[in-house]
Write a structure and sequence with these properties.
The strands form 4 sheets. The protein has a 7-stranded parallel β-sheet with strand order 3-2-1-4-5-7-12, with helices on both faces. A 3-stranded mixed β-sheet has the order 9-8-11. Strands 6-14 form a two-stranded parallel ribbon. The protein is built from 12 helices and 14 strands. The radius of gyration is 19 Å and the shape is globular. By secondary structure, it is an alpha/beta fold. The protein has a domain of 202 residues: Rossmann fold, CATH 3.40.50.
């Protein structure tokens, strides 16, 4: 399948792109940063790289993006500023929203103008859609929450749902992604390896996690299975508490798990963004079960062992 990829040059894209190439898909990768092209240099004969701003109307109407989308059959849109990397200042919150809403809006407008509709759109979202809770269990049919992230995800999905009628849409609400060289473990692994690891906050918050490999496999599954549409929760079947997560990580690394990080310190560093790591949600995927999707890493211990083996 010929695919246009937006927001796929970072942590998830670094594994997704090789998987898609190995499966025989033809890729056009879009990035604002030309330097990201170097990341996929060894695949340069198998991909087309566009240095363009997908949140700009001009890029779609007068730039290369407008031509590129006419030649593809599917689109993967995972655009978005990282949620928990920086303190939630007014400017950062604006960027978090803009990076998702503007790009997706421009994409949908461009798709709506095509004479031949795109066959499938796989669009990103997050389990932040559900809000946070210490005791509720959320699945794809659960209602949205009311906080900043929930409202953002609801708006993001609403824009994607404006796609042309004949385009199949799959929205993936992604959980906490675990993998090498990025994601939730990027900052945790050095601390744990040094012997200073411990749970964040009280440790009782839920972590609905997924191995990066399985998330990439879900994305490809959504692309290639015609019966797959609507919302999928991109989470493993076995969410854990932060305390259990850190115990597993310490055990995998053969390091102690003794020093919890106070919630007050995390709030000082991240402001309102601290709720992403201090207040969790227990999320499962009823729909992946119905599709009989088989996870490669359904257990946390196996996922951490794979990620930390090198």
């Amino acid at each position: 399948m010929r695919l246009l990829l937006l927001g796929c040059t970072g942590f998830i894209g670094s594994e997704l792109v090789p998987i898609l190439i190995q499966s025989g898909h033809e890729l056009t990768i879009v990035s604002r940063k030309k330097s990201r092209e170097n990341k996929f240099a060894k695949y340069k004969e198998k991909i087309t790289f566009l240095n363009s701003n997908p949140s700009s109307t001009e890029s779609w109407e007068k730039g290369d993006l407008g031509d590129a989308i006419k030649k593809v059959e599917g689109v993967i849109n995972l655009t978005g500023e990282a949620i928990a990397e920086k303190r939630w200042s007014k400017q950062q919150c604006k960027e978090i929203k803009k990076s998702r809403l503007n790009t997706t809006s421009e994409l949908i407008k461009a798709m709506s103008k095509l004479k031949k509709p795109i066959q499938v759109l796989v669009n990103g979202s997050a389990i932040g859609y559900y809000g946070t809770s210490s005791d509720m269990i959320f699945n794809e049919s659960s209602p949205s929450g009311k906080d900043f992230l929930a409202t953002l995800c609801e708006r993001w999905e609403a824009i994607a749902n404006k796609k042309p009628r004949n385009t199949r849409l799959v929205i993936i609400r992604t959980g906490i992604v675990l993998g090498q060289n990025g994601g939730a473990l990027k900052k945790m692994l050095p601390v744990f390896r040094a012997g200073f690891g411990g749970p964040l906050g009280n440790g009782m918050q839920w972590m609905s996690w997924i191995h990066r490999t399985d998330l990439c496999r879900i994305i490809e599954y959504a692309l290639t299975h015609q019966n797959c549409s609507g919302v999928l929760n991109g989470v493993s079947p076995n969410p854990v508490t932060m305390k259990l997560f850190c115990e597993n990580l310490g055990k995998t690394l053969n390091r102690p798990n003794l020093l919890p990080v106070p919630g007050a310190l995390i709030k000082l560093l991240l402001g309102d963004g601290a709720k992403v790591v201090l207040e969790g949600q227990k999320v499962i995927s009823n729909r992946l079960s119905k599709y009989n999707f088989i996870f490669k890493y359904s257990e946390l211990s196996h996922a951490l062992l794979d990620i930390t083996k090198s």
